[in-house]
Amino acid sequence: MATTVVKLGSALVADDQGVVRDDVLAAVSEEIAKRSTHDERFVIVSSGAIACGLRELGITSRPTAMEELQAASAVGQGIVYRAWHEHLGRWGVRSAQVLLTFFDMAQRAHYVNARHTLATLLRWGVVPVVNENDTTTTDEISFGDNDFLAAQVAILVEARLLVLLTDTAGLYTADPRRDPAARLVSEVRDPSELRALEVGGSGSELGSGGMRSKVAAAEMVTGAGIPCVVASGTDREALATILEGGRAGTYFHARREREQSFKLWLRYAKPTRGELLVDAGAARALTERGSSLLPVGIVEVRGEFEPGDAVEIRHDGRVIGKGIVNYGSDELRRVCGLTSDRVRQLLPHASEEAVHRDYLVVLAP
Ligand SMILES: Nc1ncnc2c1ncn2[C@@H]1O[C@H](COP(=O)(O)OP(=O)(O)O)[C@@H](O)[C@H]1O
Ligand SMILES: N[C@@H](CCC(=O)OP(=O)(O)O)C(=O)O
């Protein structure tokens, strides 16, 4: 079974008055319904809750207070989901509302549960309509924008493709709203090609991440072996062409083989709580030989963390890896720089590795 994740930003789901754009939802629902088969499944990631909620409440300018945005989202989410339910339902396609938080992705048990629930829905032929659960998120643990959420969902369901639909025809050499000479970039083989471009933030009042967050989401999924397309959500032909395997908008090529799902979760979803500064020998062992990190190679422990938390591993001012640490920060401060024999004398029950190679991802060579 191949799954495609299709994400629609706020500006597509709702117009600038906060009214659901039925024409857009109808067209996307029709495409999805026409193509949903036993072997081809879809997940929709839909923004628009805040925009629709503000309209329902008669609030004309976007509030800045977090609790007001969260409350508006609670009002609007039902409106957005109901619209999807009706549009998909017209084609006999069943749907389900799935609200996720960053916490669901960061806690391994929640992550695995979310994956099982989505897999079950897809097996039943139900289209999950996903949004962030804005009610319970705080600034620190929010996805921030749904491009990142869509990337996480694509990795979670091991999608064959992530489609980010927006209000421009794709990624341009500069923001097309500001620069009339901007040209559409038809494909990106490597993120380094993006350095020359002006990739900006949101151009609309209600969108949050702009093109920058789409490029970050694309980089995330392509690194996980999943290609990504950024395309227009108002051009009916674009989605049809993409789903048929043709080209429209900007195509980001998948970069390498899929990593194990645990390592993808660690790389992209698990937040870090502290930093381990390591010496040159340890840095080489990790990046060149794929070794575990032993206390002897650690020169400094920064931050407070518990065993099982993720930490950043740094050398020479650069992040070289991320891993699940076997020690709490206080214990690790006692033993860093010590050989395994000395560690055993001081802490007889502690593990030999500060971070085991199976729980470690290398981020920079
Ligand atoms: N290089 C670029 N190419 C295309 N769009 C860009 C670029 N830089 C900035 N943008 C802006 O990003 C906007 C899309 O982001 P956003 O408003 O957050 O949409 P969404 O709600 O779909 O996530 C575009 O309307 C455009 O104004
Ligand atoms: N969860 C929020 C969406 C956050 C957001 O702004 O997303 P996007 O428009 O995709 O950049 C909502 O539904 O309003």
UniProtKB/TrEMBL annotation:
<comment type="function">
    <text>Catalyzes the transfer of a phosphate group to glutamate to form L-glutamate 5-phosphate.</text>
</comment>
<feature type="binding site">
    <location>
        <position position="146"/>
    </location>
    <ligand>
        <name>substrate</name>
    </ligand>
</feature>
<dbReference type="InterPro" id="IPR002478">
    <property type="entry name" value="PUA"/>
</dbReference>
<dbReference type="InterPro" id="IPR019797">
    <property type="entry name" value="Glutamate_5-kinase_CS"/>
</dbReference>
<dbReference type="InterPro" id="IPR001048">
    <property type="entry name" value="Asp/Glu/Uridylate_kinase"/>
</dbReference>
<dbReference type="InterPro" id="IPR011529">
    <property type="entry name" value="Glu_5kinase"/>
</dbReference>
<dbReference type="InterPro" id="IPR015947">
    <property type="entry name" value="PUA-like_sf"/>
</dbReference>
<feature type="binding site">
    <location>
        <position position="47"/>
    </location>
    <ligand>
        <name>substrate</name>
    </ligand>
</feature>
<feature type="binding site">
    <location>
        <begin position="166"/>
        <end position="167"/>
    </location>
    <ligand>
        <name>ATP</name>
    </ligand>
</feature>
<comment type="similarity">
    <text>Belongs to the glutamate 5-kinase family.</text>
</comment>
<dbReference type="InterPro" id="IPR005715">
    <property type="entry name" value="Glu_5kinase/COase_Synthase"/>
</dbReference>
<dbReference type="InterPro" id="IPR036974">
    <property type="entry name" value="PUA_sf"/>
</dbReference>
<feature type="binding site">
    <location>
        <position position="134"/>
    </location>
    <ligand>
        <name>substrate</name>
    </ligand>
</feature>
<comment type="pathway">
    <text>Amino-acid biosynthesis; L-proline biosynthesis; L-glutamate 5-semialdehyde from L-glutamate: step 1/2.</text>
</comment>
<keyword id="KW-0808">Transferase</keyword>
<feature type="binding site">
    <location>
        <begin position="208"/>
        <end position="214"/>
    </location>
    <ligand>
        <name>ATP</name>
    </ligand>
</feature>
<dbReference type="GO" id="GO:0055129">
    <property type="term" value="P:L-proline biosynthetic process"/>
</dbReference>
<protein>
    <recommendedName>
        <fullName>Glutamate 5-kinase</fullName>
        <ecNumber>2.7.2.11</ecNumber>
    </recommendedName>
</protein>
<keyword id="KW-0963">Cytoplasm</keyword>
<dbReference type="Pfam" id="PF00696">
    <property type="entry name" value="AA_kinase"/>
</dbReference>
<feature type="binding site">
    <location>
        <position position="7"/>
    </location>
    <ligand>
        <name>ATP</name>
    </ligand>
</feature>
<keyword id="KW-0418">Kinase</keyword>
<keyword id="KW-0547">Nucleotide-binding</keyword>
<dbReference type="InterPro" id="IPR041739">
    <property type="entry name" value="G5K_ProB"/>
</dbReference>
<keyword id="KW-0641">Proline biosynthesis</keyword>
<feature type="domain" description="PUA">
    <location>
        <begin position="274"/>
        <end position="352"/>
    </location>
</feature>
<dbReference type="GO" id="GO:0003723">
    <property type="term" value="F:RNA binding"/>
</dbReference>
<keyword id="KW-0067">ATP-binding</keyword>
<dbReference type="InterPro" id="IPR036393">
    <property type="entry name" value="AceGlu_kinase-like_sf"/>
</dbReference>
<keyword id="KW-0028">Amino-acid biosynthesis</keyword>
<dbReference type="GO" id="GO:0005524">
    <property type="term" value="F:ATP binding"/>
</dbReference>
<dbReference type="InterPro" id="IPR001057">
    <property type="entry name" value="Glu/AcGlu_kinase"/>
</dbReference>
<dbReference type="GO" id="GO:0004349">
    <property type="term" value="F:glutamate 5-kinase activity"/>
</dbReference>
<dbReference type="GO" id="GO:0005829">
    <property type="term" value="C:cytosol"/>
</dbReference>
<dbReference type="Pfam" id="PF01472">
    <property type="entry name" value="PUA"/>
</dbReference>
